[in-house]
Design goal:
CATH class of the largest domain: Alpha Beta
Shape: elongated
Number of domains: 2
Strand content: 5-15%
Number of helices: 17
CATH architecture of the largest domain: 3-Layer(aba) Sandwich
Radius of gyration: 25 Å
Helix content: 40-55%
Largest sheet: 5 strands, parallel
């Protein structure tokens, strides 16, 4: 017998039972519950045909059209389900927990597979996830000017047992005009949000959660408003390192990339840098003077970041002077400061 369950139970069971998304491939590509396998009841064109029949004629006509389409494919669905099931169990969802998931669950049930369907479907995952993001507490934002080593320091903080939500990793982007270098292609924004929600749900909200200071957008992905507003309200530990130290790190990080790619990145911020600075940066790039290129671009990024920090509640911004670019040591200093001065 098919069992309908809520989103909390669904996510709990998904740790051991495979999840099947029965929506069309296009819907799945736009956004799905992380880890789900797509066994579409209708392909993209078929879904459009059934939907048109529903809107232009009536419900029964659309159902008959759907049966006409699905009939020849039922064996294929069955074979995929039997191969995928673990301990003879599957979790199934569609857009809003309607006929598509019910139909596929009926078939799986006939096969003897214990099947659970998600009440409210994919929409319930999105709604529940964003509600949980809005409940975020004990956030701590790791800030600092470009080249401070924030991302690497976050890795060290995680190694020391702290909870970290790595937004740039989830976005496949480091946030700046140079942020796509060395990264995979960014996912559709909806899937970025889904992955973020999934990672967030693994965290203990009663404990501190560290995040890197970010703009609302990371490349083409946008941090959900529910979380971004909480980030803007949270305390900031602002790493402060000497500019020459930051330049040295940036040269090390970006010297590995093709000069043509670096040139394109410089041109992206050309209007903000100004014509003379762009010209000089490109000349220095050509002559392998990457330290000068970094210095020129930092003039813009330092100003931009400082403006963002200045719009925060200043009593929640804590400058932390650091002597060297040593992420492991800096992580220790930051954790100690946090425990002594903020979340005691």
């Amino acid at each position: 017998m098919v069992q309908k369950i809520d989103i909390k139970s669904f996510l709990s069971l998904s740790k051991t039972i495979p999840v099947v998304d029965v929506r069309s491939p296009r819907e799945f590509e736009t956004g799905h519950i992380p880890g789900a396998i797509n066994i579409p009841l209708f392909d993209n064109e078929e879904r459009a045909i059934v939907g048109t029949a529903y809107k232009q004629i009536n419900r029964n006509t659309s159902i008959l059209k759907g049966l006409e389409i699905v009939g020849p494919k039922m064996r294929n669905y069955a074979e995929k389900a039997m191969a995928l099931a673990v301990n003879n169990q599957l979790l199934v969802y569609c857009w809003r927990g309607g006929m598509r998931s019910a139909s596929m669950a009926w078939l799986f049930d006939i096969l003897g597979i214990k099947t659970y369907t998600l009440v409210g479907g994919y929409k319930s995952y999105r709604k529940y996830g964003k509600m949980q993001l809005s409940q975020a507490r004990r956030l701590i934002i790791l800030g600092g000017l470009t080249g401070s080593g924030k991302t690497e320091t976050l890795y060290e903080i995680r190694k020391k047992g702290e909870q970290v939500l790595d937004l740039e990793y989830l976005a496949n982007h480091k946030g700046s005009a140079f942020g796509s270098l060395g990264q995979h292609n960014q996912l559709p924004n909806e899937q970025f949000e889904n992955n973020l929600i999934y990672e967030f749900l693994q965290l203990d909200l009663s404990k501190t959660i560290w995040l890197e200071d970010e703009s609302h957008s990371i490349g083409s992905n946008w941090i959900p408003n529910e979380l971004f507003l909480k980030m803007r309200e949270a305390p900031v530990l602002k790493m402060e390192l000497d500019k020459n130290v930051r330049i040295k790190r940036l040269v090390k990080e970006y010297a590995i990339f093709d000069k043509n790619h670096l040139e394109n990145c410089i041109l992206k911020i050309g209007k903000r840098l100004g014509g003379q600075h762009v010209k000089k940066a490109l000349e220095c790039l050509k002559n392998d003077q990457l330290d000068v290129v970094a210095d020129i671009t930092l003039a813009y990024y330092d100003k931009s970041y400082s403006f963002g920090v200045d719009t925060r509640e200043q009593e929640k911004v804590y400058p932390i002077k650091l002597d060297s670019d040593n992420p492991q040591r800096n992580a220790e200093i930051l954790i100690e400061f946090l425990k002594k001065n903020i979340y005691c």
